[in-house]
Amino acid sequence: MKLRTFFVEDNATIRENLVETLLELTDVQPVGYAETEAEGKAWLTDPHNAWDLAIVDLFLRQGSGLGVVAACQQRQPHQRVVVLSNYATLDVRQRCKELGVDAIFDKSNEIDALLDYFMEMQ
């Protein structure tokens, strides 16, 4: 089963490289992306949009990924939210856990761990 994945990432190069890597190495089906907090919250909370996984960056062109994560607290039990950020400090990790994030990965050195997480989900 393909994981319907939505990306909240404002850097087009990072987003495209991430999607390309995940398509090559995992069983994902990209269903869309957002570059701002408002776009991400609107898409992920719309009951007409089907998704299994959201990958959220914390620093966006407008707003914060933390706002996106907070908006997803009432998601369906099968839906997971993952934070992928260059700012995965201990404080940020704790705040993400408080908001119900399923996992958090550092962009700079935990991409392999993210791929392992995908493999576990499938």
UniProtKB/TrEMBL annotation:
Keyword Phosphoprotein set for record: yes
GO annotation terms (biological process): phosphorelay signal transduction system
Pfam families hit by this protein: Response_reg
Domain annotation Response regulatory: ranges: 4-122
Residues found modified as 4-aspartylphosphate: 57
Domain of life (superkingdom): Bacteria
Keywords assigned: Phosphoprotein
UniProt key word Phosphoprotein: yes
Chain ranges passing through the membrane: none
SUPFAM superfamilies cross-referenced by the UniProt entry: CheY-like
InterPro entries: CheY-like_superfamily, Sig_transdc_resp-reg_receiver
Protein name: Chemotaxis protein CheY
Source organism (scientific name): Comamonas aquatica DA1877
